[in-house]
Structures are given as structure tokens and as C-alpha cells.
Amino acid sequence: MPNGFRYDNFLKGYKFYANSIEFRISSSKSLEKWKNVQSFQLNQLINGKFFFQQDRREILLLKYDITSRLLYEIENYCIEASGQNVQGTASRGDVDFISTLVEKSSARFRSIITDEHKDNFNTEFVHTWLNLHEPVETYKSDRIRSFLGQRYDMIFRSIVDLLTETMQYTLVEIHELDALFCKSKFEYIEDNTKVTLDCNNSCFKTAIPFIIVSDFSNRISAAMQMCLIIQRLEIYLEHFKIETIYIKNYTDDVIDEDLISKIENMGIEIDFRKSICRP
User: Fold this and answer.
1) Helix (H, G, I), strand (E, B), or coil: what is residue 275?
2) What is the pTM of this model?
3) 267: alpha, beta or left, given left = phi > 0 and alpha = psi -120 to 50?
4) What SS3 state is found at 207?
5) How many CA atoms lie within 13 A of 186 on its CB side?
């Protein structure tokens, strides 16, 4: 039989647990939100809203696939745990186990793009992006561990919201970085020799780089007591010569004057004609 191993292992570990229809209604609504955001983002990649080279698209697609599998596993775990826990709220063991599932998913994703299938991805892009994304992974782990004592339906809803925002922010990171790679010649050192890569997409060659301000990045910055915008720019400056940028404001707030000063103090001019600093 083709795919015999896959067939043999399908539902192999399945166990019956009495279902909670209330939990299923809640989790279905959360997963509907997740899929709607996924559909919206992927449509942006093919309708001309964003141009991503193929390996950048694959990063987003792979992250969506692995995260979707993770969410279904967490949903099943919450159903099983809630059926065994008469108190109806998550224990330390529950939260720790969910955290390990999230960490395992992140590790699996990293392994695929940096090792197992690294030939499908631009190595320099991947390592630069993973460096950008590290604070997000830390924030995600901290948030999940804070769900201790919540009802299982609330935990699942909160996790879906968190991972949905993480994927929206991932698009922001890739969008910024892809434009920089395509505008500039990317330089790095390998075996004491400078290596220069040039993007084959000419549409960004004359474009001004941009930085995106979002509600999610502001929340991470506040929680971790760091400015995620400045952190991204510092990483970009390690690889690219950036003289001018403009700001895309995806929040309902006015851009903080302190952020503008910090960017300018890095030696970067802000093009205020193109920038959106007010909602």
C-alpha cells in the first residue's frame, strides 16, 4: 500500500474522551479566526500586495502548517485534560506540557529551514530572520506559561489569539527583511572572505526601506522592556547600509516622538513624506 507507514500510524494513539460541546463551540470559533487570518495573509502574497521570493513564501507556509498542527494537538489535549480534571482549570502540568509542545514545534520548524531542507532556503536570510524573531519566541513562551489556572476553553482561545498575532508579526518581519535583501547587496563573511549576494528582483532596487510599527510589537516591547523596532533596525544595520527609511504605522496611535529620536540617533534619516506617523 502506498504511504503504508502514514496509514498505519493514522489515529494509532487515538483515545476516546467524552467531549464538551461548549469547548468545541469555543475552539471552533477560535480556529475559524486562525484560518481566516491565514487565508487573508496568503492571498496578500498572490494578489500583489507583497512580493516575496519563493523561499520567503515557504517560510510563511511552513510556519502556518506546523502551527496549525500544533493548534489541533493543543485542542485535543485540552479536551482530554478537561475531562480528567474535575476543577476545570489548567494545572501547572498542563501549562508546562503545552509549553513543551510549542517549543518542540518551534525547534522542528528551525531544524527544517536550517538543516534538513536548508538547500530550499537562502541561508543568510534565514539566519538573519531567526535572529529577528528570537524575542517573539521568548515572549510567546512567557505568555503561555502565564495561562496557569485558566479554564481550558479560555486557554485555547488565548493561545490561538497569541499564535495568530505571532503569524501576523512574522509577515511584518519577512516583509521588511525581504525588501532590504532585494534592495541591497547582502554582505557577510565566510572563511575570512567577504561574500556578496545580489537579489534578482529589480523592483526594490530604487525603493526606500521601511520599518513597520504594530500593536503586537508594542506589546512585546512593553512586556520585555525593550524596543522591538530598534532591535530590528540594529540587526538590519549589521548587514545593510541604511541611510533613509520610512515608517508604516499599523496602529491606531501616533508614532512616539521618542521612537523617532532613537531612529535618528542611529544615523538613519526618516522620510516623513512617505511615512505614516498618525492613524
Assistant:
1) coil
2) 0.86
3) left
4) coil
5) 21
Contacting residues for 121 by C-beta, under 8 A, at least 6 apart: 55, 58, 59, 113, 114
What pairing do the DSSP bridges indicate for beta strands 210-213 and 269-270?
unpaired
- Tell me the backbone φ, ψ of residue 197, rounded to 5 degrees: -110, 140
Q: What is the DSSP string of 210-260?
A: EEEE-HHHHHHHHHHTS-HHHHHHHHHHHH----EEEEEE-SSSPPPHHHH
User: How deeply is 52 buried, as exposed, middle or buried, from its count of CB atoms within 10 A (0-12, 13-18, 19+)?
Assistant: buried
Amino acid at the residue 205: K
Give backbone dihedrals phi and psi of 178, rounded to 5 degrees, phi first.
-60, -40
Find out whether 236 and 242 touch, Cβ atoms under 8 Å. yes
Q: Which residues pair with 193 in a beta bridge?
A: 190
Report d(CA 178, CA 218) in Å as an integer: 22
Residues 6+ apart with CB under 8 A from 76: none
CB-CB contact of 53 with 184 (8 Å)? no
| Neighbour-count burial for 169-207, b at 16+ CB within 10 Å, e otherwise | bbbbbbbbbbbbbbbbebeeeeeeeeeeeebeeeebeee
**pLDDT tens-place string over residues 184-222:** 444 444 455 654 545 544 444 446 789 999 999 999 999
Report DSSP state, residue 150. S
pLDDT digits (tens, 9 = 90+) for 84-139: 766 778 899 999 999 999 999 999 999 999 999 999 999 999 999 999 999 999 99
Report the chain's C-alpha Rg in angstroms: 21
